[in-house]
Design brief:
The complex is a heterodimer.
Chain A lengths: L2 H22 L4 H21 L3 H26 L8 H27 L18 H18 L3 H23 L4
Chain B lengths: L3 H21 L3 H23 L3 E4 L2 E4 L2 H31 L13
Classes of the chains: A mainly alpha, B mainly alpha.
């Protein structure tokens, strides 16, 4: 087992543990958000191992750095610490949700274990520790940039429109006072 | 070489943890966080598959970046969703003084 594969399993374990921490933590919302940060950061590390350097940087900056911080702002602003719900509904929802999730997970895993069609594979970009910085600034970024403003110009523009709509929407939501 | 099946397995497990959270938890903020988790799991599957699509470029075989551009778009959508969603959560808390999704049933038939 090479170091890349071993590191992949370590980060995968951290990601799953963080997600479980978010799921099973009923007492403290702030701790749940911190668990989500752990998941996001290990996903960023996995992106590095898979050769997606630019995405790894974006993942850590946007998810761990911006989105979860906004979540934490809202949690602390509204001063809510605990999850409140009625017990009878809780049990029903739990059984229902876990049944559906178990079924879908079974389907996913059997489909994956059934084997994928044979693709020719490309080597991983993670060729030794010392090359990460060079690879980050030399290869991935320029090519990704060319593709974003080249082949994917229309989705790129639509994304800018979407962000504009989100800005306007959140300002409207924050300003309006409902009676 | 990390096996793609294992990447997909991790993606499926994370997605299902997010699904269980979205179906069982009743707190709106936890619901939004679980939806973020599901989006991330889907992004991971995209990045895993992205490696399987080689192109020839200047003599060397490198992976195409289409999957990574998809993930970039997913991140944009997730950011917009969080901005609007948390705005809704705040105005909801102002009006209803509650974080429970059961208290927001005006549109439920």
């Amino acid at each position: 087992m090479t170091i890349e594969v071993a590191l992949f399993y370590v980060f995968a374990l951290v990601a799953v543990l963080g997600a479980l921490g978010l799921l099973l933590n009923f007492r403290n919302l702030v701790a749940g958000a911190i668990c989500l940060v752990a998941t996001m950061v290990s996903l960023g590390a996995i992106y590095v191992l898979l050769g997606a350097y630019f995405l790894a940087a974006v993942q850590i900056m946007v998810y761990a750095g911006a989105i979860v911080v906004v979540f934490l702002f809202v949690i602390m602003l509204l001063n809510i610490r605990t999850d409140v719900f009625t017990p009878s509904q809780q049990l029903l929802f739990k059984i229902f949700g876990i049944l559906i999730a178990g079924f879908v997970l079974f389907q996913f895993l059997t489909a994956i274990a059934g084997g994928l069609p044979a693709f020719p594979t490309t080597p991983d970009g993670f060729g030794g520790y010392r090359d990460i910085a060079g690879a980050l600034f030399a290869r991935g970024d320029a090519r990704e940039g060319t593709q974003v403003v080249g082949d994917f110009i229309l989705p790129f523009e639509i994304a800018s429109l979407l962000l504009l709509a989100a800005i306007v929407g959140s300002v409207v939501l924050a300003k309006r006072r409902l009676e | 070489m990390i096996p793609v099946e294992h990447v997909l397995g991790l993606s499926a497990i994370l997605f299902l943890i997010g699904t269980v959270g979205a179906l069982t938890r009743r707190n709106i903020i936890v619901l939004l966080m679980c939806i973020e988790l599901m989006l991330n799991a889907a992004s991971l599957a995209f990045v895993g598959f992205n490696r399987l699509w080689p192109v020839k470029e200047a003599g060397a075989t490198v992976s195409a970046l289409n999957g990574q551009v998809f993930v970039l778009m997913v991140i944009v959508v997730a950011t917009a969703e969080v901005a609007v969603g948390l705005g809704i959560v705040i105005s909801l808390f102002r009006n209803r003084d509650s974080m429970n999704v059961e208290d927001v049933s005006l549109l439920k038939w």
